[in-house]
Amino acid sequence: MTKQIEEKDDLIRELRQRVTELLAISKSHQQLMARQIQENEDLKRDNKLLAKQIDDYFNMRGRGL
Q1: Cα 53 to chain center, whole Å?
Q2: Residue 64: left if φ>0, alpha if ψ -120 to 50, beta else—which one?
Q3: 3-state secondary structure 1-65
Q4: Does residue 64 register a pLDDT over 70?
Q5: How many Cα atoms sit within 13 Å of 4 on the Cβ side?
Q6: How far is residue 19 from each of residues 16, 23, 26, 33, measured CA to CA in Å?
Q7: Is the CA virtual torsion 27, 29, 33, 39 positive or negative?
Q8: CA terminus-to-terminus distance, the chain
Q9: Confidence band (pLDDT; 50, 70, 90) for 47?
Q10: CA distance 65 to 53
Q11: Residue 16: is its pLDDT beyond 70?
């Protein structure tokens, strides 16, 4: 009986450790995703600005300027 309790206690400790590790991984992934989302938004904004610059350039050329 005592051995079973010790084994269960060991299992509970291992599971708690694993949960702690998984929570750390989850937090790391959340931070990474937040950075990637921000970078994606920055790239979208830059892409729109570049498209506008190209459009303005070709519009100016088309007018002979």
Answers
A1: 30
A2: left
A3: CHHHHHHHHHHHHHHHHHHHHHHHHHHHHHHHHHHHHHHHHHHHHHHHHHHHHHHHHHHHHHCCC
A4: no
A5: 1
A6: 5, 6, 10, 21
A7: positive
A8: 92
A9: very high
A10: 15
A11: yes
Residue 33 tokens, joined: 């995703």
Q: Can you read off the two tokens belonging to residue 64?
A: 């002979």
- Tokens found for residue 26: 């989850």
In residues, how long is the chain?
A: 65
Residue with tokens 């920055």: 42
- Which pair of structure tokens corresponds to residue 14? 């291992």
The residue written with tokens 């459009």 in the block is: 55
One-letter amino acid at 34 equals A
Residue with tokens 């937040």: 34
